[in-house]
Amino acid sequence: MKQIWIISKRELDSFFNSLIAYIMLILFLGFSGFFTWLFGSDIFMVGQASLGSFFSIAYWTLFFFIPALTMRLLAEEKRSGTIELLLTKPVTDRQVVIGKFLSTLFLIGIALLFTLPYVITVAKLGNLDIGAVICGYFGLLLMSGVYISIGLFASSVTQNQIVAFLTALFIGLFFHLIFNVLAGSFTGTIGQVFDYLSMSTHFQSISRGVIDTRDLIYFGTLMVFGLYFAELSLSRRNANN
């Protein structure tokens, strides 16, 4: 656990030292704030004390931002050769992957913490369902965990950050959009399978304030698979070397 924390802290420091964290925070708050308060289906247009608009915007904003954060985590280390140096230390491939995963999840958590003024403001406008808000934030963290694990896998199979970014987006697009479209195109068992694979199905369920075991299993399974394949990719590379 100590090694995981050291790696996680190292990565989190690198985010802030390279200005990546600041750029991500500014863009995330800018996009989410603009579309939540000023444009389209904003809070005032909805006409009720709800953060549904924010969660809908964050659902898409994080989908694009997370691959941009994860693309360098392993790809850059492989390109520069620092991954070999890191793996010569008393750490396992799993500890490296989990440490990098947690550092990115911490950064997403920090970004979401900066949106707490939204909660305070909306709560003053009307009777806000705090339980649904907490579940909405929880859903965003779970969704982020899935896409971080996918991004880590994409970053582990290439030395090119752009390739890692596009690969993570391509894989994520199936869960984020395509499975949902396919679920509406099929009926019966096939339609139910696609519906279960769709990220929006589980995110919307949690953001409504309902914590279902099936949703937790869905998010947990995808995270475990993503991290496992990232670890497997590192292990194979080490075996080849």
Walk me through the structure.
By secondary structure, the chain is an all-alpha fold. The protein has one domain (2-236). Helices cover 83% and strands 0% of the residues. The chain has 13 helices and no strands. The chain has helices spanning 2-17, 20-37, 43-46, 52-70, 75-80, 82-87, 93-113, 116-125, 130-156, 161-185, 188-197, 199-207, 213-240. Helix 9 packs across helix 10 (161-185). The longest helix has 28 residues, at 213-240. The model has no long low-confidence stretch (mean pLDDT 87).
Task: Quickly describe the structure.
The protein has 241 residues and is mainly α. The protein has 13 helices and no strands.
Largest sheet: none
Class by helix and strand content? Answer: mainly alpha
Tell how many strands the DSSP assignment holds.
0
| Structural Rg | 19 Å
Low-pLDDT stretches are: none
How does the SSE layout of this entry go?
Elements: H1 2-17, H2 20-37, H3 43-46, H4 52-70, H5 75-80, H6 82-87, H7 93-113, H8 116-125, H9 130-156, H10 161-185, H11 188-197, H12 199-207, H13 213-240
Helix pairs in contact: 1-7, 2-4, 4-9, 4-10, 7-9, 7-13, 9-10, 9-12, 9-13, 10-11, 12-13
Which properties best describe this structure?
mainly alpha; 83% helix; 241 residues
